[in-house]
Amino acid sequence: MSSLLAFHNVSKSYRVNDALVPALHDINLSVSQGEIYGVIGHSGAGKSTLIRLINLLERPTSGSIWVDGQNLMELNDQALRDMRRKIGMIFQHFNLLSSKTVAQNIAFPLEIAKCYTADEIKRRVGALMDRVGLGDQAHKYPAQLSGGQKQRVGIARALANEPRVLLCDEATSALDPQTTQSVLRLLNEINVDLKLTIVLITHEMNVIRSLCDHVAVLDGGRVMEEGKVSDVFLHPQHETSRRFVYESEAWDESTIAAAFAHVKGKLVRLTFRGDKTYEPVLSSAMREHDIEFYIVSGRIDKIKNVPYGQLVISLNGKQIDEALAYFRAREIRVEEMR
Ligand SMILES: Nc1ncnc2c1ncn2[C@@H]1O[C@H](COP(=O)(O)OP(=O)(O)O)[C@@H](O)[C@H]1O
Ligand SMILES: [Mg+2]
């Protein structure tokens, strides 16, 4: 897949009074055409700064940003205006115009683009409302809508000019968990149906896990770790990533050995991915080798649409090494914890 968006050695400092306050340090990342790319970080990590650099609300202090093969730093005013239209954005607090109806909010970017007839606008707004499931809400005002509906209007408005990339700044952070899921499903549908590249920033690992293909972990304005979501989620390398992953977990990797000090046998963590998750590997290992096991902790879930399982088991018996080799031969990742 080709790169649609790239940061090359991008740094950004804000001028506050007479001082330069750094917000991003030497960021390098590359987003492929058609993927959903997540950036996760705590408050103050630099996420909004990063996204504002993409939609040209801020300029980097150094480095270059490329969208669709064009260096944003080198665009003239007209080219910048054209590029802005190719970049759609949705926000945590929706940013709808309260005096305009749903249909008028969605029509707004089409009207200011000045390249559509009134008929075209009407037709496109109708299609966009259907796309986001608001076909029957055209004449309501934002105050009459739920949070999830407001975000759907935001999404329709962001799609109006057929952008090349959709930026989402904490788009589900103001929504309850159920509404969050329905908005994430809609974003996923849009990504699949329109092959639209999405960059989203969030402080929630669950948003990354259910939606994204790649993730960058941002802390103190630096990318700490970057990679496929399944790799970062199942085997986080950096302390910041670990904290995000284990926030939602009962047992943190570093405390497992201590938490299960009273458990006899060899403690190992097995990670299954894809179809392996549903194969009876443990019971067949027990049948073929002299071992017994019991499960100490575990989870079975999905990362985007791929199932995975991660189990900590206690192994006992005479053929533990053989059993571990048996797991490894079946592409199960084995980590010996104690
Ligand atoms: N307009 C600004 N002027 C000065 N400092 C800013 C400005 N915007 C953000 N910052 C600072 O940059 C850092 C990163 O902020 P931000 O990008 O908003 O992080 P996040 O979105 O991850 O919470 C913070 O230290 C913040 O105080
Ligand atoms: Mg922010």
Which key terms come to mind for this protein?
338 residues, Alpha-Beta Plaits, elongated, 12 helices, six-stranded mixed beta sheet, binds adenosine-5'-diphosphate, 36% helix, binds magnesium ion, alpha/beta, Rossmann fold
Work out the number of β strands: 14
Largest sheet: 6 strands, mixed
- The CATH class assignment of the domain at 1-86 and 166-175 and 197-248 is Alpha Beta
Provide the CATH architecture of the domain at 1-86 and 166-175 and 197-248: 3-Layer(aba) Sandwich
Total count of helical runs of at least 4 residues? 12
Oligomeric organization of the protein chains: single chain
Give the low-confidence spans. none
CATH topology of the domain at 1-86 and 166-175 and 197-248: Rossmann fold
Rounded to the nearest angstrom, the radius of gyration is 24 Å
Share of residues in helices: 25-40%
Q: From N to C, what is the helix and strand string?
A: EEEHEEHEHHHEHEHEEHHHEHEEHE
Shape: elongated
Q: Give the neighbour order of strands across the main sheet.
A: 6-7-8-3-9-10
- What is the end-to-end distance? 41 Å
Could you explain how this protein is built, in words?
The chain is built from twelve helices and 14 strands. The radius of gyration is 24 Å and the shape is elongated. The model has no long low-confidence stretch (mean pLDDT 93). The chain has helices at residues 47-54, 77-85, 102-113, 118-131, 147-159, 177-194, 205-211, 229-234, 239-246, 253-259, 281-288, 320-329, and strands spanning 3-16, 19-32, 36-40, 62-67, 70-71, 87-91, 165-169, 197-202, 214-219, 222-228, 266-273, 291-303, 306-317, 333-336. It is of the alpha/beta class. Bound molecules: adenosine-5'-diphosphate (ADP) and magnesium ion (MG). Magnesium ion binds next to helix 1.
